[in-house]
Amino acid sequence: MQHFKSHLHDEAGTAALGAALSRAIAPGMAIYLHGDLGAGKTALTRALLHAAGHTGNVKSPTYTLSEPYSVKMDGRDVNVIHFDLYRMGSPEEFLDAGFREDFNGDNVCIVEWPEKADPVLPPPDLHVFLSVAGEGRDVELQASSALGLSCLQRLKFAPNL
């Protein structure tokens, strides 16, 4: 499966997808979240982090640009770094902040507003497209690497019907 599409009827559907993704992702992944303001990018990330074992608050790093979280994946400590590049003025800010070094085989990087760092952002393994649709959201996941494809093959998610 190279892509997955679904309709999430409500916030619980978004949370369920985040939990399913937490069980399918692997260290080294870069996940790019696409969608308008309010489409559910941070809600999906929050659900993923909580399902991965983070017990504290998960806030959008709108002003700090990145926020690291330590979780366990398969018994291994892994940093999940949540980026929100909405307020970034230029791709050079991404480089100046040293964020490229976070994209390695050990961390999981989740990036909101990745287009703000084009063309200096490393390529993603998985694109997640979210859009508001009535009371819920439409979501599409697209693998763009072998790691992303492996993630989608491990994904066990039945949309809320």
UniProtKB/TrEMBL annotation:
It comes from Pseudoduganella namucuonensis. Its main location: cytoplasm. This is tRNA threonylcarbamoyladenosine biosynthesis protein TsaE. SUPFAM superfamilies: P-loop containing nucleoside triphosphate hydrolases. The keyword Nucleotide-binding applies. Belongs to the TsaE family. Pfam families: TsaE (PF02367). GO terms for biological process: tRNA threonylcarbamoyladenosine modification. InterPro entries: P-loop_NTPase, T6A_TsaE. GO terms for cellular component: cytoplasm. It is found in: Cytoplasm. Keywords: ATP-binding, Cytoplasm, Magnesium, Metal-binding, Nucleotide-binding, tRNA processing. One of its GO terms (molecular function) is metal ion binding.
